[in-house]
Amino acid sequence: MINWLKETGEERDIIVSSRVRLARNLDSCFFPGRMETTTAVKVYQNISEALEHKTFQSFRLKDIPEIERNMLVEKHIISPALTLTPELSGFAMNQNESQSVLINEEDHIRIQTLTSGLSLREAWDQADELDDRLESKLNYAFDEKVGYLTACPTNLGTGLRASVMIHLPALEMTKEINKVFMTISQFGLAVRGVYGEGTKALGSLYQISNQSTLGDGEEIIIKKIENLSRQIASKERETRKRLIERNTVLLEDKIFRAYGILKHARSITADEAVRLMSLIKLGVGLELITDCTMNEIDRLYVDIQPASIQYLQRQEMDNMERDVKRAELLRNSF
Amino acid sequence: MINWLKETGEERDIIVSSRVRLARNLDSCFFPGRMETTTAVKVYQNISEALEHKTFQSFRLKDIPEIERNMLVEKHIISPALTLTPELSGFAMNQNESQSVLINEEDHIRIQTLTSGLSLREAWDQADELDDRLESKLNYAFDEKVGYLTACPTNLGTGLRASVMIHLPALEMTKEINKVFMTISQFGLAVRGVYGEGTKALGSLYQISNQSTLGDGEEIIIKKIENLSRQIASKERETRKRLIERNTVLLEDKIFRAYGILKHARSITADEAVRLMSLIKLGVGLELITDCTMNEIDRLYVDIQPASIQYLQRQEMDNMERDVKRAELLRNSF
Fold it and tell me: Candidates 1.10.3720.10, 3.30.590.10, 2.40.50.140, 3.40.190.10; correct CATH number of B3-235?
């Protein structure tokens, strides 16, 4: 599971992962939103055949049990939108789950690659290579002037959405996070919380991504996000150092209380766990906590989600049962 | 320290200690409130001589450093009132600190005995014996009709205040505590929180004592408090069983989170510690926590108090330093 997560990777103490998504369509048929089931099945077959079978395995969504679907959503391997039309849609993924291709979601093809730390270029190279392989066997809907054609105009052109997941607890504590948000939007980039709803990011995890797919070329988009993320990571790192120097006891107390609760609670919600694990990540980053690795914690973010808990236990569970199992999993992890 | 605390003792899972206090005065001089310093010193000498020196050691309060005085108050060996007139007052205590005699507090003599669990009779017997020893050597102010004469009329007659310290977290959780309070006052007894101010008892620790010293004889007062305390303890025990059977996860979660915080916090106030230790006591009582004993926790209640922390460290500390030392002490205790 989540084998793409590595200890190494640039800025790994602050940047969890990098991610590239390419939207592509076949020029021979309607976009998925207007497609008949028979066409959808043909499209699924064409695309899964175009992928090499040795590295990729394809699935029609209707063949995947519901808990497993939700678990795949929690792992970001498939999107929630893909699960809305299980008769039409499908996906393929490679063995270590770092690459996936969504079939008949909003577009016929969504290529997704996920890499560890700040490594957008690597994610982009992998996506680009996969894209080339598919393009050599399929006819993409492409316009010389506009670029790749997509179901939604916000994806037109490059069809590229590049993003990094970044952990910014110290900038949140010092309230400097709003200045960071302003800088991000000044660069024409978007930022949103990974967990939680609205603007409140649960566990200080944010995703920074490009807003526009038109205009700038892929290289420029990638470079822009990489540069800005590196700057923000460096600011977060400085702020952490300043915090631990000036408020050692306060910060250590926060971190170790979170550790104590995660290590001993008998029932815990996913939201509370995400909030507390953020402090553990900070503690590992500051080398205050040494009995677990960044990698192990980042895996836990996924493993403690509702469907993943049930998938790991191979049984359906209600809220309270999940909270108990989650607490058990966390107790055993620290 | 606090050697009177034993694992054994009736109802030890719920009743911490039993306590007897006798107010006595000499008939030869004014009550301490109206006494000259020279008289006070003489009274101190007479009383300390009347105590056997082998088992009791006497101190004038002016010779005790301030931190140590406050530590003795936190241990309930001396009273806050005794520290108000250090030039006049003094005290004597035996080696295991289970018996003390306050000299020139509100009355010339306050005999205090402290025993473990529900053992008021034992505490009374010890106080009575000490009282007889003193009475054989000193002339008490005594009136045939009223009984022992005291500075304040609320202590007239027997001069006896008997009390038990009882831990009632389950009755608090189920909100049945108010019914218990009503029963206590119907029996003409008083109840108050041991920690915290006003009616809110911090850490669910209560003291039940007699309100009246006139009318009933000593035997009746002791019996009444013993019987009622035994009934309340039995009700608390039943409620604990019911809670753990019906809300296992909820209760275990509360208890182990408290444990996790006490075991890992880097800074903690006395109030928070008392609140959390109450859950640990409950956990030990329910045999959920087995790596510390009731005795160890009950000692901690005293050791974590502000003056005791400083006394143990042999240095003056401000609030924040104490919170850090307290957290360290607690971490090392679990």
Answer: 3.30.590.10
